[in-house]
Design brief:
Layout lengths: L5 H15 L5 H19 L1 H16 L8 H18 L5 H23 L12 E2 L2 E2 L1 H19 L3 E3 L4 H17 L7 H12 L3 E5 L4 E5 H21 L19 H17 L8 E2 L4 E2 L6 E2 L6
Parallel strand pairs: 5-8
Antiparallel strand pairs: 1-2, 3-4, 4-5, 6-7
Helix pairs in contact: 1-2, 2-6, 3-4, 3-6, 5-6, 7-8, 7-10, 8-10, 9-10
């Protein structure tokens, strides 16, 4: 793995130990790949999972008469989580730079969206900019944390990855549309078509433990967007923020938001790609980049 942390190296060591001390067999090998996949995904989500746990805990148990406003508590908790991640070397400084960029990009969007009434936060606390509590930026940072970790944990490589300047133009257009559609036409469906055209031929190769698997990158985008949509439902249930139709009582976030998260994924991927330059899969037998790895299988072949 690229620049692995101590926890990530431990996951691989445990997997090797499990196989080395047990009788061989295809079933055991597949079980190991599945378990390692789950552990790595859980580890990739650690920042977001901790933040979401704090948000849920504050919703259930935080005293309504506490001297510290709940939003300020959430902000301080988010800062503490981030500091501990760096202090204990669970996150690299290189990754932290990307996460801070996610924080800035997300906070700017939050300021605009709350101003036009797309969603709202409870007006409490002092650790906020206007109507936006500072913990909101950490929710975007959690997405950034997940993206950089997944890139490294699964040694992501790509066949036919589009030129980065093209992806940057698409991402910039998506970001601008998040603001401009309030005043002019909404081009999200046009942008979705552009994403399909730009990324449609790209295949993502990822290593779980000993095998490489492959998946169309658009499918990966959709799966992550769906995961974020589920997390968003938990966040709004916890009243961390609310959409206008939830002010009189909570209801599930509209499935239409899935498209917004899918498009946001493109911005996320582009930001990460400027730090971790996308590379082609390597032919391990010959050591040459740009060719399919001999151990690569599709998800269906690896199941």
């Amino acid at each position: 793995m690229r620049n692995s942390t101590s926890v990530e190296e431990s996951i691989d060591r445990l997997a090797h130990r499990f196989l080395d001390r047990s009788p061989g067999g295809r079933l055991r090998s597949r079980l190991t790949e599945f378990l390692v996949f789950g552990l790595k995904q859980a580890w990739a989500c650690v920042f977001g999972a901790l933040l979401l746990a704090v948000i849920m805990g504050a919703r259930l148990w935080y005293p309504s008469d506490a001297g510290l406003a709940r939003n300020d508590f959430l902000t301080l908790a988010a800062v503490l989580i981030q500091v501990l991640m760096v202090v204990f070397r669970l996150e690299t400084l290189r990754e932290l730079r990307v996460i801070v960029l996610f924080h800035v990009v997300g906070t700017v969007m939050e300021l605009f969206k709350t101003d036009v009434g797309s969603w709202a936060y409870e007006a409490e606390g002092v650790l906020r900019i206007g109507a936006v509590p500072l913990f909101s930026g950490f929710m975007y940072a959690a997405v950034g944390s997940y993206m950089v970790r997944v890139f490294r944990l699964f040694d992501l490589r790509f066949n036919r990855y589009p030129r980065r300047w093209v992806t940057a133009l698409v991402a910039a257009a998506i970001y601008v549309n998040f603001f401009s559609h309030h005043y002019i036409l909404d081009f999200r469906w046009v942008l979705l078509a552009a994403v399909v055209i730009v990324y449609g031929r790209c295949v993502m190769h990822y290593r779980v433990f000993r095998k490489r698997f492959r998946m169309p990158i658009l499918v990966a985008f959709l799966l992550v967007a769906l995961f974020i949509w589920f997390a968003e439902n938990i966040g709004t249930w916890s009243r961390a923020w609310l959409y206008p139709n939830q002010l009189d009582g909570w209801q599930a976030v509209s499935i239409d938001k899935l498209l917004a998260w899918f498009l946001l994924m493109i911005i996320s991927v582009v930001l990460v790609a400027w730090v971790y330059k996308p590379e082609g899969p390597e032919d391990e037998a010959q050591g040459r980049p740009g060719r399919a790895d001999l151990t690569t299988v599709s998800p269906s072949e690896g199941s």
